[in-house]
Design brief:
The structure holds two protein chains of two kinds.
Chain A lengths: L1 H35 L18 E4 L5 E3 H4 L5 E7 L4 H13 L5 E8 L3 H11 L5 E5 L3 H5 L7 E6 L2 E7 L4 H10 L2
Parallel strand pairs in A: 3-4, 4-5
Antiparallel strand pairs in A: 1-2, 1-5, 3-6, 6-7
Chain B lengths: L1 H31 L17 H15 L4 H12 L14 H26 L1
Helix pairs in contact in B: 1-2
The chains are: A alpha/beta, B mainly alpha.
């Protein structure tokens, strides 16, 4: 009786100790790896995905266009999502006006959840860099593009999104676009 | 005849409501499983940001177009990546998350089983 109790106890410690060590190491390893991994979500900005297919109304008109009709030519396109109520859009506007001078690039605006009157005032005040403006009154077209909000800019070539700018454009990003469009 | 007409109208309205309610249930089920990417710790269902409101409209539109729940998740995954889903799929990055509880359950079960056997002896 005494002997069996002893062996039972012995076996328990025999299993328990390695088991504790292994589980400790396992948890330590997972937490250690987790420490170095960032949990901040960063969306991808360099993509090679195809442009989405959709139907959209032209700003301040009843005309409807498909995505194929809009991006049909063999040039670079810059799709810029903007709104008159968006303050950072004012900051990036001079860059768009500068990019307008580039003949190989066509800038298309997507007016996001805006009123026609306010949008027109915005363009009258700061000038119009867009060759074509599309209207997205409920924000669903922006979702098709995988956008998060305004402003957001997509560089498109050959039916593919080659660069994505989330937030307003700055000097560095402006230069990157100039370099890409050659 | 009048009563028959009334009956038809009532049945029609009733059916309409049921299908509507089904769509709404599916809609809230899907939007509760979507992460609002620009707000912290909120689902699309709970959030009232411009992004969330537009996404709710898109989900509604896709449901009326006849897309299934999984098709909608797949669609949004191609646009925003896996991060938009609260319920992660089993893959290389998440297999520990999915398999660890099962493993612990089996180990615990084995320990209990062994103890019971020893006690019986």
């Amino acid at each position: 009786m005494g002997c069996s109790a002893f062996s039972k106890k012995n076996m328990k410690t025999k299993i328990l100790l390695p088991f504790t060590i292994v589980s400790f190491l396992f948890i330590f390893f997972i937490l250690y790896v987790g420490l170095n991994r960032s949990n901040i979500y960063i969306p991808e900005t360099v993509t090679n995905e195809k442009i989405p297919t959709f139907k959209v109304k032209v700003f301040n008109s009843e005309k409807e266009l498909t995505s194929k009709e809009i991006f049909e030519n063999d040039i670079y396109y810059l799709l810029n999502i903007w709104a008159s109520w968006c303050i950072p859009c004012r900051d990036e506007h001079p860059y768009l006006m500068e990019l307008k001078k580039n003949k190989k690039l066509e800038i298309i605006g997507l007016n996001y959840k805006d009123k026609v009157k306010n949008a027109n005032n915005f363009l009258n005040e700061l000038n119009n860099p867009y060759t074509l403006i599309l209207s997205d009154t409920d924000g669903t077209i922006a979702i098709e593009w995988g956008a998060y909000g305004v402003p957001e800019t997509f560089l498109i070539y050959n039916g593919k999104i080659i660069k994505k700018i989330i937030g307003p454009m700055n000097n560095n990003l402006f230069k990157e676009i100039e370099r890409a469009v050659k | 005849m009048k009563i028959l007409n009334l009956l038809v109208i009532i049945i029609f309205l009733f059916n309409f409501n049921v299908s509507n309610a089904k769509d709404r249930n599916l809609n809230s089920k899907i939007t509760k499983n979507l992460r609002c990417l620009i707000c912290q710790g909120q689902s699309i269902h709970d959030s009232d940001t411009e992004f969330a409101n537009s996404l709710k409209l898109v989900v509604e539109k896709k449901i009326t177009e006849g897309m299934s729940e999984n098709e909608i998740y797949e669609f949004l995954k191609t646009k925003y990546g896996e991060w938009i889903l609260y319920d992660p799929a089993l893959n290389q990055k998440t297999y520990i998350l999915w398999l660890l509880p099962l493993l612990l359950f089996l180990i615990g079960g084995a320990i209990i089983f062994k103890n019971l056997k020893i006690e019986k002896n």
